[in-house]
Specification:
eight-stranded mixed sheet; 2-enoyl-CoA Hydratase, Chain A, domain 1; about 35% helix; 19 helices; 3 domains; elongated; binds hexanoyl-coenzyme A; about 500 residues; alpha/beta
Length: about 500
């Protein structure tokens, strides 16, 4: 009996070595942790329970039947806890055949995906791999298909998070692409469908892996990634932080943590946040952090479409999603990228019953040939669709500009928002004074006195929250310093909001 127990320990220890000391050293030499070290950092101490540690590949082609078989087959899977809450995890082991995906490797991922869906708990994938196991050919392709299918089946049911911590190419990119959030590690990770060599052959472009699909490109340009972190350790600790904000599944409701921040806290500095000059920017992040619990804000997509801010926060210890125009960047205008970024975030929050708080200071949609040719009609419609479709509690605060179509799109009362507040500094109008006067008083063009008189008239009548408040488009004009209290109370009132939509197979969001 003792021998058998010892044998098990030896087998386990052998499996835990992955691709062996030499390859582990090389992994560390590149500034990367191993698959198991990553899991240990991601999960609560000692909480990891591994599945399928002894699974081996069954390939017999290209000498694979004669080569040493490494137990685990290039991916470590299982479950554990993050601050006590169950999560499932798979972590690609680059030290075993470059983390490449074989038939059996795919089956291990599918098993953990199915378990996560059955148990209704989040799943986190850590990627560091060379794509399809080349020796396995079509069996690897089939394996990818099986993984993709489970990603889609789990979409909107459990949160799915991907962290790219090394190469992620070919078949490996599409599983993360169908999850809710992708994070990358700077300098050590890259993602592309085809690498620099194929690009050179096909299009004759010369690029490095970093230029083609590094963390900077994907977090600021392509928007494939929702964030980038400096090291493996930082990325994993931030994912733990994110998990704390998320419900376990679409039916569980938001997590509630003890809050030590008084819901009635007033902040008088907000009374002077808006500059006297309406063309002067201010930092919307300052408002967000002053309103939310303990200034704890987990931003999503920080470096992409910086004219809109999206992220998770808490009020009274309960998670909320924040969407806010950022006047510091492009005056907070809505363009195609900002619309797409916010639409995706709104849909995530709605799928997982996370209430949304929207802060509005938007001069309109961005005009221009590039925007029109780039499909701003369709991209803007995504955000309009997402807010209109949402059934979670929606609370909106207009701080300054809310002009034109952008006013309607940014969670206005007309498209289903529940409580809409405006600061006294709000300007809710079809457009700014200058543009309006130039059009409706064209006859006065050239008469500077008449134009400035008309501009004053327009400003006095329309550039305030009161025309909208008179119509009930705004529920109340509130004092900036009491914003936290007002939003928190509105969310408490809305806690049992329940909206039924007509039965349908699914909607047809403008993709
Ligand atoms: C089998 C692989 C492998 C793969 C790497 N290895 N990729 N084995 N299949 N796809 C093995 C190597 O043989 C090596 O084994 C070890 O992993 C480390 O690889 P290196 O090349 O030494 O590492 P590095 O220099 O860091 O380069 C990493 C890499 C490179 C950029 C990922 O390995 C690479 O380009 N691999 C092939 C990528 C690829 O073309 N994949 C197929 C994509 S097609 P030893 O024994 O020396 O440690 C695809 C289609 C699916 O995925 C589509 C589904 C929809």
């Amino acid at each position: 009996m003792k021998d058998i127990i010892e044998q098990l320990e030896t087998r386990r220890a052998n499996a835990r070595l992955g691709g062996g000391e030499r390859r582990t050293k090389a992994q560390h030499g590149r500034g990367k942790l191993t698959a198991r070290e990553r899991i240990d950092l991601l999960l609560d101490d000692g909480s990891f329970e591994e599945f399928d540690m002894f699974v081996e590949h069954r390939c017999v082609d290209f000498g694979m039947d004669k080569a040493e078989k490494i137990p685990g087959d290039g991916v470590v899977t299982g479950w554990g806890t993050v601050n006590g809450r169950t999560v499932f995890v798979f972590s690609k082991d680059f030290t075993v055949l470059g983390g490449s995906l074989s038939d059996t490797h795919a089956a291990k991922i599918v098993k953990v995906q199915e378990m996560a869906l059955k148990v209704r708990a989040p799943i986190i994938g850590l990627f560091d791999a060379g794509g399809a196991r080349i020796q396995e050919g079509v069996a690897a392709l089939g394996g990818y298909g099986e993984v993709f299918l489970r990603n889609v089946r789990a979409s909107g049911v459990i949160p799915q998070i991907s962290v790219i911590m090394g190469p992620c190419a070919g078949g490996d990119v599409y599983s993360p692409a169908m999850t809710d959030f992708i994070f990358m590690v700077r300098d050590t990770s890259y993602m592309f469908v085809t690498g620099p060599e194929v690009v050179k052959t096909v299009t004759n472009e010369t690029v490095t892996s970093e230029e083609l699909g590094g963390a900077k490109v994907h977090s600021s340009k392509s928007s494939v990634a929702d964030g980038a972190f400096d090291t493996d350790v930082d990325a994993l600790l931030q994912v733990r932080r994110l998990i704390d904000f998320l419900p376990a599944n679409c039916e569980d409701g938001v997590p509630e943590v003890p809050s030590f921040d008084d819901a009635n806290r007033v902040d008088t500095s907000l009374d002077t946040l808006i500059p006297d000059n309406p063309n002067k920017p201010y930092d919307m992040r300052e408002l967000i952090t002053k309103v939310i619990d303990e200034a704890d804000f987990f931003e999503i997509g920080t470096d992409f479409a910086r004219n809109i801010i999206t992220g998770f926060a808490r009020l009274e210890g309960r998670s909320v999603g924040i969407v806010a125009n950022q006047p510091m960047v492009l005056a907070g205008v809505l363009d195609s990228d900002a619309s797409r970024k916010a639409a995706r975030f709104v849909r995530f929050c709605d799928a997982f019953n996370i209430p949304i708080v929207t802060f509005v200071d938007v001069p309109g949609f961005l005009p221009g040939v590039a925007q029109e040719h780039g499909g701003i009609i369709k991209h803007g419609a995504k955000l309009l669709f997402a807010f209109s479709q949402a059934t979670v509690p929606l609370v909106t605060v207009i701080t300054r500009k809310a002009f034109g179509g952008a006013y309607v799109v940014m969670s206005s009362k007309h498209i289903g928002s529940d409580m809409n507040y405006a600061w006294p500094t709000a300007q809710i109008a079809v457009m700014g004074a200058k543009g309006a006067v130039e059009i409706i008083f064209r006859a006065d063009t050239g008469d500077a006195d008449a134009i400035s008189e008309r501009t004053r008239e327009y400003e006095a009548r329309f550039l305030s929250p009161f025309v909208a408040a008179e119509r009930g488009y705004i529920d109340e004009v509130i004092q900036p310093h009491s914003t936290r209290r007002r939003i928190t109370r509105a969310l408490a009132m809305l806690r049992n909001k329940h909206v039924e939509r007509p039965k349908r197979k699914h909607d047809n969001i403008p993709l």
